[in-house]
Amino acid sequence: MSFSTISRWETGQSTPNDTQMEQLEALQDLLQQSDVDKEKLRKTILTIGLTGAIFAAVAVGIQLSGSLGGIFSGFLSKTTGAKFGEPVTGEGLSKLFKKNGG
Hints:
The chain is mainly α and 102 residues long. The protein is built from 5 helices and no strands. Helix 2 crosses helix 3 (38-59) and helix 3 (38-59) crosses helix 4 (67-76).
């Protein structure tokens, strides 16, 4: 989401869509975590974007209550019995990037 998008929200010219609201909720959840370095989070968002920062947070085991946290933890879960937010590299993510026939 760009600065111009946020400016349009602030001036009432548009409203956030469902995905943008989920991103904002996940960001709010991250900011409320006491063990999250806010400056490092800001730099991460500037470098890889908000969705990338949310994914990275879930990958290292930070639990998020929103739907994006659940979606991303599903990619990272080793098995269906893995705990939510558990920092593991799982089958879901490896299947996402596996070459065809490999």
